[in-house]
Amino acid sequence: MQISQKMLASLAACAMAGLGMAAETPFTGIFGGAGGFCLGALHIHAQAVEWNTSYSVCETSNYEVLEEKIWKKKSHLVWLLKNPGEKCRFEIIEAQHVKNQGWNITGYPSREAFEKKGQPGWVDSALPGRQILSCSMVKVD
Predict the structure, then answer these.
(1) What is the C-alpha to C-alpha distance for residues 126 and 101, in angstroms, rounded to an integer?
(2) pLDDT tens across 31-85, in order?
(3) Residue 7: CA count within 13 A, CB half-sphere
(4) Higher pLDDT residue, 121 or 9?
(5) What is residue 56's predicted lDDT score, i.e. its pLDDT?
(6) Which residues of 67-85 are buried (b: 16+ CB within 10 A; e: fewer)?
(7) SS3 assignment for the chain
(8) Please, are residues 56 and 40 in contact by the beta-carbon 8 Å criterion?
(9) Terminal-residue alpha carbon distance, the chain
(10) Cα torsion 59, 114, 42, 76: sign
(11) Rounded CA gap, 3 and 46, in Å?
(12) Most buried residue among 96, 105, 119, 136 by CB atoms closer than 10 A?
């Protein structure tokens, strides 16, 4: 069976759209959190992030996208904050879509903490360079 160039192009376009790669506009949204350390809001703008909670205040900061997987039903995004301010405890913010409007938002103090998050000794560590904040949040916009 021979596949034409037109069919290959069509298949490639479908595959890229299914992986969320066709999206040319950046992911944006406002997320609200409640209770304890998670009380506050996360604002994702086209070129900046701001996350304020009772635990940490991350000023509006430019970011670098480290990971971006956007599907129709589930999404996973990771941002490296470039200048989050002195009161911000996080260098990296990860957003994982759970279901409906529910998201799990996690802050990591460093790239190392993010990269080693699943390794023994890093999960639930009391060392300051390993402490993360994980919040259940609702996307309100």
Answers:
(1) 31
(2) 999 888 899 999 999 999 999 998 899 999 999 999 999 887 789 999 999 999 9
(3) 4
(4) 121
(5) 92
(6) ebeeeeeebebbbbbeebe
(7) CCCCHHHHHHHHHHHHHHCCCCCCCCCCEEEEECCHHHCEEEEECCCEEEEEECCCEEEEEEEEEEEEEECCCCEEEEEEECCCCCCCCCCEEEEEEEECCEEEEEEECCHHHHHCCCCCCCCCCCCHHHCCEEEEEEECC
(8) no
(9) 48
(10) positive
(11) 39
(12) 105
| Average pLDDT, integer, range 96-124 | 89
Give backbone dihedrals phi and psi of 11, rounded to 5 degrees, phi first.
Answer: -60, -40
- Residue tagged 């490296």 (tokens): 80
Cβ atoms of residues 109 and 131 within 8 Å: yes
User: How far is 19 from 5, CA to CA, in rounded Å?
Assistant: 21
Tokens of 23: 């999206």
Tokens 């390993």, residue? 130
pTM above 0.85, yes or no: no
Structure-token match 């460093």, residue found: 110
Tell me the two tokens of residue 30.
């406002």
